[in-house]
TrEMBL record:
SUPFAM superfamilies: GAF domain-like (SSF55781), Winged helix' DNA-binding domain (SSF46785). Residues 103-321 form the Heat-inducible transcription repressor HrcA C-terminal domain. Pfam families: HrcA, HTH_DeoR. HAMAP family: HrcA (MF_00081). Negative regulator of class I heat shock genes (grpE-dnaK-dnaJ and groELS operons). Prevents heat-shock induction of these operons. Belongs to the HrcA family. NCBIfam families: hrcA. This is Heat-inducible transcription repressor HrcA.
Length: 337
């Protein structure tokens, strides 16, 4: 769209419709926005925008509402993402800095992002590329039950109580732990199985069966560390926006719960020059999301993990883009530290 004034009119229509959820007429635009032209001129601009497929009339004699194409033109003209206020940045930093471990930090992040945007928030667990074993503990919990705890260099903590076929003394467990840790310390978490085989064979023959079971659990904890996981919060906000969707929101909820589908969608999203990506309506490959918009970005090492929000196309795009990018940056900083 080459005419700046028509882009101003489109932006005004988007802003008013997002705020009011009511179709916007030319008189309301002139009254509420300093467009510097008459209602007749605005009507001509609106007719041109409608012909270009940027806006549409939801029914006869109504004002106009943006289409997916109109939202796209509006988002593309946002030159840069507006930074959050000092108070907002301080609140995000304080909230996320108080997390004790990765699990708590992920849960806080997804809740915070949902509250900031009033949309459904999605946060992919940090990609564990490069995660290595930092610490291992074997602790007797009860006769024949041992707690296995593994901590990685990325801050992941995995633990599981394991039943073994015999009572193991504290001295035996201490020896096993030392042998296991010697074999896997600083090893990639996805390559523990082979590293633990010689550690098991070094154990006393009478304890090798128990050692093999415990080694298997350490391997499983390593695999769990590698799994792709997605946390979600704020689905109740969809219920507040049912009028914004052409269809029932149930299919959208079904897609959101399909982690494989959402992980694939997020993995296909690349940040633009503003550090965030926006997919609007039919731009989303999954048909149930054709009524929705996705705003997402990468975070963490190489920005390999993703976070974002899903909501109706009638969305506060500038505010949502700012919140998504800000939360991602703070999360990256914390993980780096």
């Amino acid at each position: 769209m080459n005419q700046p004034r028509r882009l101003d009119v489109l932006s005004a229509i988007v802003e008013d419709y997002v705020h009011s959820r009511e179709p916007v007429g030319s008189k309301a635009l002139v009254d509420r926005h300093r467009l510097g032209v008459s209602s007749a001129t605005v009507r001509n601009d609106m007719a041109a925008l409608e012909e270009a497929g940027m806006i549409m009339a939801p029914h006869a004699s109504a004002g106009r509402i943006p289409t997916d194409k109109g939202y796209r033109a509006f988002v593309d003209q946002i030159a840069s993402v507006k930074p959050l206020s000092v108070a907002e940045r301080r609140a995000i930093s304080s909230f996320l800095d108080s997390s004790d471990d990765v699990d708590q930090m992920m849960e806080k992040t997804v809740r915070l992002l949902s509250q900031l945007t009033r949309q459904v928030a999605l946060v992919q667990y940090p990609t564990r590329t490069g995660a290595r074993v930092r610490h291992l503990e074997l602790v007797t919990m009860a006769p024949k039950f041992v707690l296995v705890v593994m901590i990685t260099t990325r801050g992941g903590v995995g633990q599981r109580v394991v039943e073994v076929p015999e009572d193991l003394t504290e001295e035996t467990l201490k020896t096993m732990r030392a042998q296991f840790l010697d074999a896997i310390l600083d090893q990639p978490v996805g390559e523990l199985e082979e590293a633990l085989v010689p550690a098991v064979t070094r154990c006393e023959p009478m304890h090798q069966k128990s050692a093999a079971i415990l080694a298997g659990m350490v391997t499983i904890l390593g695999r769990n560390e590698q799994e792709e996981r997605l946390l979600m919060a704020g689905t109740s906000y969809l219920a507040e926006s049912t009028d914004d969707f052409n269809r029932n929101i149930a299919p959208i909820l079904d897609v959101l719960e399909e982690q494989v589908v959402m992980l694939r969608l997020l993995s296909e999203i690349d940040d633009d020059a503003r550090g965030v990506s926006v997919r609007i309506g039919r731009e989303n490959a999954e048909s149930p999301l054709s009524d929705a918009s996705v705003v997402a970005t990468g975070y963490g090492p190489q920005l390999a993990s993703k976070l974002g929000v899903v909501g109706p196309t009638r969305m506060d795009y500038p505010g949502t883009m700012s919140a998504v990018r800000a939360v991602a940056r703070y999360l990256s900083r914390i993980l780096h530290e």
